[in-house]
Amino acid sequence: MTPKESAPESPLPEWLDELYYPSESDEPVDYVDFTVEFEPPLTSTQIKDLLLITPEIYIEEIPETAFWEPVVTDQDWYGEEEKHRTARFIELRDRIEALLSNRQAFRVGEGEVGLYLLGKKTDGTWAGLKTLLVET
After folding, report:
1. What is the 3-state secondary structure (H, E, C) of 17-35?
2. pLDDT tens over the chain, length 136 residues
3. What does the DSSP 8-state code read for residue 41?
């Protein structure tokens, strides 16, 4: 079976609508769903298979907290819009924790970095969130 990303209806539409992950270029957060079953934990090779990327692309596993911390922590200078975004990300985190087990976070590439939080669904396949970080 060839791993591929499918485009199902997201179980998170209200959590992802107009939600942007802050970096040098705020990017949307999208739901991804895969039709592949791997036993956890995912390896770099399995991530490359899931994402259909070539072997030379750099992949780094990061703690799940590193995915969430920038978006669930209020800063002193935040206005109402930023505080609202933080609250939405906290709700999204809670929903993801309820939907997915064995969660792992990965950075893929350099400069324009794909940021993924993936976990195992109850049917044994993998799904999660993806966004893009622009770093210079």
Report:
1. CCCEECCCCCEECEEEEEC
2. 334 444 445 666 677 888 999 888 889 999 999 988 889 999 999 999 889 999 899 999 999 999 999 999 988 898 999 899 999 999 999 999 999 999 999 999 988 899 999 999 999 999 999 999 988 7
3. S
Classify domain 5-134 by CATH architecture.
3-Layer(aba) Sandwich (3.40)
pTM of the shown model: 0.87
**What tokens appear for 117 in the block?**
């939080």
The token duo for 53 is 């990327």
Written as six digits, the tokens of 17 are: 């609508």
DSSP string for 54-109: -TTS-EEEE-HHHHHHHHHS--TT--HHHHHHHHHHHHHHHHHHHH-EEEEEEEES
Residues sharing a CB contact under 8 Å with residue 103, sequence separation 6 or more, in sequence order = 64, 96, 97, 117, 118, 119, 128
Q: Please state at what angle helix 80-99 crosses helix 64-72, rounded to 10 degrees.
A: 150
Closest C-alpha to 3, from 29, 41, 32, 40: 32
